[in-house]
Design a protein that fits this description.
Blueprint: H1 2-32, H2 37-59, H3 72-99, H4 102-109, H5 112-123, H6 131-149, H7 159-183, H8 188-203, H9 206-209, H10 216-219, H11 222-250, H12 252-256, H13 262-273, H14 280-299, E1 307-308, E2 314-315
Antiparallel strand pairs: 1-2
Helix pairs in contact: 1-11, 1-13, 2-3, 2-8, 2-11, 3-7, 3-8, 4-7, 5-7, 6-14, 7-11, 8-11
């Protein structure tokens, strides 16, 4: 039964990362319509938070709504999750593109699984890092490099941009790691709602330095509204819920290995929507990613974290 549930969790993780891989295309279309990456992030999280809040209030009708965590330390943990998985990650990644190439940014950010594996071993001494697990992750990382470079080995070093991309990578790694203790005490629904809230709250100072927001006429254009709703409802609300659930079910290391598939999903979406070409390098790199992930998943697995429902009752399913 556990094996079947783990297979389902892997499928959910794959679908989640595949959807996230397509967000670059939809974000690019919004940028073409004059909306900045920071504005897109803010709108995504505001809409997702309001929807999550409405759903949570409806789900708990007749019961007292849980606005805060059980202790100030846990509330600080929620704040940290909102910063690492929200404002810092998205701002660092988007700002990195201003100083360095998309290739550099993608290579650094998508190396997150390997970094997470090493950090996970540092913070959780009970988890042994198996050789085949590390080897599989390295092979998958190599495949990701081949996919991203696509036969063009041109890396323009830019200290500022590369540091920002590394900050985004490190931020997402710590987000996934901090999700382990959070899921031991709170439901994925409660955590995700708090992530959106603190993500929006901590991005507000950005607008002091870079003021301005898109006009309502621009936001109500059918193409803009459709893309924005997809990014808010599917890529943010639904995917953050499923991703947090996958971390609870599979553990941070196993779940985050699926991030290697992110550039594959991006390229396929760009091929379907933008007409970009798929090359032999893409196919070779994709095969290496799949082989590396298979080896890593077969030879190393962190134990699942107990999941909780919205009322805090532990559940093994």
């Amino acid at each position: 039964m556990k094996k079947e549930s783990d297979i389902f969790a892997h499928i959910v993780a794959f679908v989640t990362v595949a959807i996230w891989g397509t967000t670059f295309v939809w974000t690019k279309l919004l940028i073409y319509n004059g909306i900045s990456p920071a504005q897109i992030f803010t709108l995504r999280f505001v809409i997702a938070y309001l929807l999550m809040l409405g759903f949570s209030l409806y789900w708990q009708k007749g019961a007292r709504h849980k606005w805060f965590a059980d202790s100030w330390k846990d509330e600080l943990l929620m704040l940290a999750l909102g910063v690492t998985g929200g404002s810092v990650y998205f701002l660092a990644e988007n700002e990195a593109l201003r100083f360095t190439t998309a290739t550099n940014t993608s290579l650094i950010v998508c190396s997150c699984p390997l970094l997470t594996m090493l950090i996970y071993r540092m913070f959780y001494n009970s988890e042994r890092l198996k050789i085949m697990q590390l080897a599989g992750s390295v092979v998958a990382c190599l495949g990701m490099v081949i996919v991203v470079l696509n036969g063009r080995f041109v890396l323009n070093l830019s200290p500022v941009g590369d540091v920002l991309a590394f900050i985004a990578c490190l931020s997402w790694a710590f987000y996934s790691l901090m999700m382990k203790p959070a899921l031991q005490r709170y439901s994925s629904l409660f955590i995700t709602r708090k992530v959106f809230f603190y993500g929006v709250l901590t991005v507000l100072p950005y607008y002091i330095a870079v003021p301005g927001f898109p006009l309502m006429d621009a936001l109500l254009q059918p193409a803009v509204l459709a893309n924005l709703l997809f990014l808010s409802v599917v890529a943010s609300m639904v995917c953050f819920l499923t991703w947090n659930w996958c971390i609870g079910r599979l553990g941070a290391v196993q779940a985050i290995n699926w991030v290697y598939l992110n550039p594959i999903a991006t390229i396929v979406a760009a091929w379907l929507v933008l007409g970009e070409q798929i090359t032999a390098y893409f196919l070779i790199g994709s095969i290496l990613i799949l082989i590396g992930m298979y080896v890593s998943e077969r030879k190393g697995a962190s134990p699942p974290t107990p999941l909780h429902n919205e009322r805090g009752v532990s559940s093994s399913k």
